[in-house]
Design goal:
By secondary structure, the chain is α+β, with helices and mostly antiparallel strands. The protein is 41% helix and 18% strand.
C-alpha cells in the first residue's frame, strides 16, 4: 500500500515536465517552419524594392533625355548655339517734342528705358543694339503714331551705311515675345528695314505676320509714349520729303511731332 501511494505521487511530478517539454519542442518546430516563409517574404519585398528603384531610375534617365532634347531643339529654333552667352541689354532713348509750348505739360519728353532681349531674339536684338551704338536713331522723328496701335520711328534718309542688317529673322519659339502693349518690334518683323515700333495696345494679331518683338519698355517709358501727339496722319511720305530740307521744315508742318534725340546702351548682363 505504501508503494502504490508513492507511484501516485510521482506520476503528476513526471507528467508536468513532460508536457512542458512537448510544448517547447512544438514551438521550436513551428518557428523553424515559419522561418523560410519569413525569409521568403523578405526576399520578395527586397526584390520588389529593387525593381521599383530600377524603374524610377529608368524614368529619371528618360526625363533627363527628353529635357535635353527639348533644350537642344529650343536652342536650334532660337538660333542660339549651345555655349553662347545669352545677353540682355539696357538701352535708353531720349525723346523730346522740340516745338512744344513750354507751358504744355501733356507732351512727350523724357527717357525711354528699353530692355533688349537678346536671349529670346538674338538676330533682331543684335541689329537694334548695333544701330544704337552707331547712333542711327539719333535725331529721327517718331513719324507714325496711331492711338491704341503703334508709335514708329527709324526713318533716316540721310544715313549712309557700309553694312546692311541681315534679312533673316529670328525663329519663333515658345518664349518669343508677343506684340502686347509695351513691346518693341521691327516694322514688318524685318531688321533690315531698321524702323521700329512700340505697341501702344495689345496687338497680338501682328504675331501672325512674324513681326515679333525683341524688347520691352518700362511702365514709366510707356507713360511718356502715351503723351505723343497722335493726330498726324500723313505718315512716312511727308517726313521723307521734308527731312531732305532739314529738321525745321518738318517742325513747321508738324510742330507737335516728337523725335528721338539720342539713344545709347547703358549696360548688359548675361543670363
Amino acid at each position: 500500500g505504501h508503494l502504490s501511494k508513492q507511484k501516485a505521487v510521482l506520476r503528476p511530478t513526471i507528467l508536468v515536465p513532460l508536457i512542458l517539454g512537448v510544448a517547447l519542442f512544438t514551438m521550436i518546430m513551428l518557428v523553424r517552419m515559419q522561418a523560410p516563409l519569413l525569409i521568403g517574404n523578405n526576399n520578395v519585398n527586397s526584390n520588389s524594392l529593387a525593381a521599383d528603384t530600377k524603374s524610377r531610375a529608368k524614368e529619371e534617365v528618360k526625363e533627363r533625355t527628353e529635357a535635353e532634347k527639348s533644350f537642344e531643339s529650343s536652342v536650334k529654333s532660337t538660333g542660339i548655339a549651345t555655349g553662347i552667352t545669352k545677353t540682355i541689354t539696357f538701352v535708353e532713348c531720349k525723346v523730346t517734342t522740340p516745338m512744344a509750348n513750354s507751358a504744355d505739360t501733356s507732351v512727350a519728353n523724357g527717357v525711354l528705358q528699353i530692355t533688349v532681349r537678346n536671349d529670346l531674339s538674338p538676330i533682331a536684338s543684335k541689329v537694334f543694339v548695333d544701330l544704337v551704338n552707331a547712333h542711327y536713331y539719333d535725331g529721327v522723328f517718331i513719324f507714325r503714331v496711331l492711338k491704341g496701335f503703334v508709335a514708329q520711328w527709324g526713318f533716316h534718309n540721310k544715313w549712309t551705311k557700309t553694312t546692311k542688317p541681315p534679312k533673316t529673322k529670328d525663329a519663333v519659339h515658345e518664349n518669343t515675345l508677343s506684340n502686347l502693349r509695351g513691346t518693341l518690334s521691327f516694322a514688318g518683323g524685318n531688321p533690315a528695314v531698321q524702323q521700329v515700333f512700340v505697341n501702344l495696345g495689345n496687338n497680338a494679331r501682328l504675331d501672325k505676320e512674324d513681326s515679333r518683338p525683341f524688347a520691352t519698355l518700362s511702365q514709366e517709358s510707356m507713360d511718356i509714349v502715351d503723351e505723343l501727339y497722335m493726330e498726324y496722319k500723313d505718315g512716312q511720305g511727308q517726313i521723307k520729303a521734308l527731312q531732305k530740307e532739314g529738321v525745321n521744315a518738318v517742325l513747321e508742318i508738324f510742330p507737335k511731332m516728337s523725335k528721338v534725340e539720342s539713344c545709347h546702351t547703358v549696360s548688359a548682363f548675361s543670363t
